Amino acid sequence: MRMVGERSFLGSPTNQSIGIDSAARASPTHKKFAGPIFDGLFYAFIIAMIVGATMFAFSDDESKSIFGYRFYSVLSDSMRPEFAKGDMIIIELIDSDYIDVGDIVTFNPGSTTGAYLTHRVVGFADNRAGVAGNYVITKGDTNDVEDPPTPVDNIIGRYLFSVPYAGTLIRFSQDNLIPTVIILVSTFFLILTIQSLAAEEEDDEHQREEGYNTG
Predict the structure, then answer these.
(1) Counting runs of H as helices and runs of E as strands, what totals does the chain give?
(2) Which residue ranges of the chain lie beneath pLDDT 70?
(3) Hey, which bits of the chain come out as E strands?
(4) Which pLDDT belongs to residue 6?
(5) 3-class secondary structure per residue, 64-106
(6) Exposed site from 1, 34, 78, 155, fewest CB < 10 Å?
(7) Domains of the chain, earliest start first
(8) How far is the C-alpha of 88 from the C-alpha of 171, rounded, in Å?
(9) 25 CB contacts (<8 Å, ≥6 apart)?
C-alpha cells in the first residue's frame, strides 16, 4: 500500500510537467499568429493615414476634414523641435473657446485664403490697431517675434501630433500618385511576408529543440 502511494505521489509532478510543456509548446504558435496580426493592423493604420492625408491634400474644399481631423504638410522650421519642415501634422478641429495659452493651433492669418500657420498661442488681445475684437497672439517656437494678432474665428484647430517626414511623402505623392500607391501596397505585403517567414523559422527552431529534448 505504501509503494502504491509513492507511485501516485511521483506520478503527479510528471502530469504537471506535461501540462506545462504543452502550454510552452502553445506559446510560440500564439506568438506566430498574434504578432503579424497586430503588426499588420499597425501598418494598415499608417498606410490608411497617409493615403487619407494624400486624398485630403488633393481636395479643393477648404472645409474638408476626415472624422474631424485635418492633415497638413509642414513647410518651415518655425516650430522645431516640436515638428520640422517635411513632417505631417494632425490637427483636431476645435472651437476657439477651448483654446488656451500654450496650445499649438493652426489658423488662417487672413492675408491669403489658402494660407495656414501652425504656431503656439502666447496670449489673447481685445484690440488690434485700434479695432476692438477677440484676437489670439501666436508665435513660432524658433521665431524671435510674435505673429500679428489674429481673430480667434480664424483658428482651424489644435495640433495633436506629427509624423516625421510624412509631409514630404505626401507632397511627392501629389505629383506621383499611382507610383506612390504601388510602393505603399508593395511595401506593406513585403513586410508581412518577411514577418511570416521569420515566424515560421522560429517555429521550426522550436520544433527542432523539442526533438533534441525528446531524444
Answers:
(1) 3, 7
(2) 1-36, 39-40, 43, 46-64, 111-114, 204, 206, 208-215
(3) 69-73, 88-93, 104-107, 117-128, 131-139, 150-151, 155-163
(4) 39
(5) CCECCEEEEECCCCCCCCCCCCCCEEEEEECCHHHCCCCCEEE
(6) 1
(7) 60-169 (2.10.109.10)
(8) 10
(9) 206, 210
Residue 208 is classified by DSSP as H
Cell numbers placing 44? 494598415
Residues in the chain: 215
pLDDT at 123: 95
Q: Which three cell numbers stand for residue 132?
A: 476692438
Do residues 141 and 80 touch, judged by C-beta distance below 8 A? yes
199 contacts: CB under 8 Å, gap ≥ 6: 31, 32, 35, 36
Question: Distance (Å, rounded) from C-alpha 73 to C-alpha 117?
Answer: 11
